[in-house]
Amino acid sequence: MDSSISTSDTILEPQPDLEFESHEAAYSYYKEYAKSVGFGTAKLSSRRSRVSKEFIDAKFTCIRYGNKQQSDDAINPRPSPKIGCKASMHVKRKQNGKWYVYSFIKDHNHELLPAQAHFFRSHRNVDPLKNDIGRRRKNLAAVSKLFHAYQNVDFLEGYMRNQHDKGRCLVLEEGDAQVLLELFMHMQEENPKFFYAVDLNEEHRLRNVFWVDAKGMEDFNNFGDVVSFDTTYFTNKYKIPLVLFIGVNHHVQPTLLGCALIADETLYTFLWLMQTWFVAMGEHAPRVMLTDQNSAIKAAVAAVFPNTRHCFCLWHVLEKLPRHLEYLSLWHDSLMLKFDKCIYRSWTEEQFEKRWWKMVDKFHLREMQWLQSLYDDRKQWVPVFMRDISFAGLSTASRSDSLSSSFDKYVHGETSLRDFIEQYRIILEDRYEEEAKADFNAWHETPELKSPSPFEKQISLVYTHEIFKKFQVEVLGAAACHLKKENEDQASTTYSVKDFEDNQNYMVEWNESKSDIYCSCRSFEYRGYLCRHAIVVLQMSGVFTIPSKYILQRWTNAALSRRPISQKLDEVQSKVRRYSDLCRRAIILSEEGSLSLESYNLAVSSIKEALKQCVSVNNSVENDVRPTTSMIHDVSGVHGHNQSVNAPDAKAADPRLANTIKTSQSVEAALERQINENNANRKGKQVSLAGAANVGSQDGFHHMEPSDIRPTPMHNVMMPAQVHNMVPAMFTNVASTHFHNVAATHLHDSRLHR
């Protein structure tokens, strides 16, 4: 049979009656067969005639044929795919010049990958765009099915255009891989929940690496609403290709949610990395993901986190302005003023559109591709489009103000991988120490009130110290604001607020029926708490408590609790109202009881009896709801032990529950102490019910979608200890195919990043 007939999608197994024009034609046929079945090929050997010097014999094999041979004293040995596979095809030349199949071994000792066969080096084309369109879409569909997140195969057309990039690998110094492995082994010995994954290329060389410690995973459970993916060290060509997943805790401290070393900026790399991080976080996605403006990252985030709001960090966008607009240096100051006004001073989307195109036309920028890309992606970075989210301080106008910059003291341009590994341990220790110190201060220090403002008093009961200090500045700054009503309709009222501190005007919209308030300085969207402009509008509208939706649980002392703080706050504020009422009644009783000895004795007797009954009732209630000592011991005793997730019905104790119990009791105890101190300072003065109502009318706190950011028990997800033993199967080559000089300070500092 002539080899030319073997061109259909289904390649027949090599048969003894097959004939080929040359040994190259035979090898081409074997490659096509291998590609359809799902393995890579290699030429093992060939032999020439001693007389005619022509080829008379050739043997082609699976790339995993044979066994690895490496001398014991080899330095930095290269990984080998050989695992003793016997699959091969042996061909020989006849007298008439034709070639035939002398022997064929079909069976392999490893998994075959037909859907990912195009990743094998032997099956790559020089120009992947010339691949058959139907086959390319078939491969994409296979990747999409495995990835289970792609909604549109067409948008990943570019994914196949860079298949030659899949052979790239990390550029490491000698011994770096061993240092990494030692770190991973040591970290997992200390805590079995430590998670790491590796991605190998076809030559089994290290391509991408990801890891996260147990504290990082716990921090994501508690503060996973907003995550920043920082590629600064990679894009700025640092010595180590490091990228970080960064969050922020309730003390406004950065949290390290994962580290990675990557070989390139291809879509493949970011798909693998995002999917791996997603698995490590218990298959729970953040509500908001902040990244640089990068087409590959944008596609990867859309694929892996289709329900996540993807935004660009402001400073990532703004730092590129001087470089891209350098040729306009003569008009730079004027352009920056227009850009600043367009970005920060646009109250509505329509106003932004008008100012943007006016700026573009004035400076003749319509043909500038980068600026056009900014406009196309405007809903991912322009502040006017960020009305319904909060970045919790992770998106700032300059890197120096960002929480990401806190890692700059550990990583420099010439920091080697070995140096970073040493710094990594210091980073973790510093993070733990800073958070422990802030927790201690939160429970042992009472924030100082600096004004009689009911807003300050309300928030002092619940915010952590750091965020309370920031909010306190806004409360005090409200005295420097003057408002003027601009517009009123059935739904809302719009005010113009003059801030005399920075001599700027801001627009504030207040909807009383929905308790919605929105300020053009966008403090809540970018920092996570209300600004002075909103406070003065609430005050002038007769509202003396911050609406519940604008008090994020992530900023409170009860941020680690599974129970929404709104429930605890209702209880505490109910105690405040009852306490105030009892004080008022006690004053009346004291006045009447002191008029005679008989009335005094009656009052004292009644008080003693009432006190005894109250204590009895309260003890009975506490016994009904308080966990037993053995329960608390069992819960807190699971720290440091790997929990099995193979038994979905097993009610494994959650180590975070111990912290929840402690936190809940501590919050209530701290608030109780504050209430007692406040009332002790009254020195017998009558407490007005109106004053108590101002404190107690709070409905609750806004909880940032706990179902979205707190993982449920991961019955079907491999924990790190399990992944450690399955890395070759899950995250190596096989699994990787599844995922498939103008100063910026010239920008005007706005209220957005004060």
* N/C terminus separation: 79 Å
Main sheet: strand order: 6-7-10-9-8-11-12
Shape: elongated
Extended strand count:
16
Largest sheet: 7 strands, mixed
Count of helical regions: 25
Which residue ranges are poorly predicted, with pLDDT under 50 across at least 5 consecutive positions? 1-8, 72-77, 126-165, 625-754
- Residues in helices, as a percent range: 40-55%
Gyration radius, rounded? 33 Å
Q: Quick check: average pLDDT?
A: 75
| Beta-strand residue fraction | 5-15%
Strand-pairing-aware structural class:
alpha+beta
Report what the structure shows.
41% of the residues lie in helices and 13% in strands. The chain is α+β, with helices and mostly antiparallel strands and 754 residues long. The strands form three sheets. A seven-stranded mixed sheet has the order 6-7-10-9-8-11-12, with helices on both faces. The chain has a five-stranded antiparallel sheet with strand order 1-5-4-3-2, with helices on one face. Helix 10 runs antiparallel to helix 11. The chain is elongated and about 135 Å long.
Summarize the structure.
The protein is α+β, with helices and mostly antiparallel strands and 754 residues long. It has 25 helices and 16 strands.
SSE layout and pairing:
Elements lengths: L18 E2 L2 H15 L3 E8 L6 E8 L25 E6 L5 E7 L27 H15 L28 H15 L4 E6 L5 E7 L1 H10 L2 E5 L1 H4 L6 E7 L5 E8 L5 H14 L7 E4 L3 H10 L4 E4 L1 H5 L2 H4 L7 H13 L4 H14 L6 H8 L40 H28 L9 H7 L4 H13 L3 E8 L4 E7 L4 E8 L4 E4 L3 H5 L4 H9 L24 H29 L3 H29 L3 H8 L19 H25 L8 H8 L9 H4 L10 H11 L2 H4 L18
Parallel strand pairs: 8-11, 11-12
Antiparallel strand pairs: 1-5, 2-3, 3-4, 4-5, 6-7, 7-10, 8-9, 9-10, 13-14, 14-15, 15-16
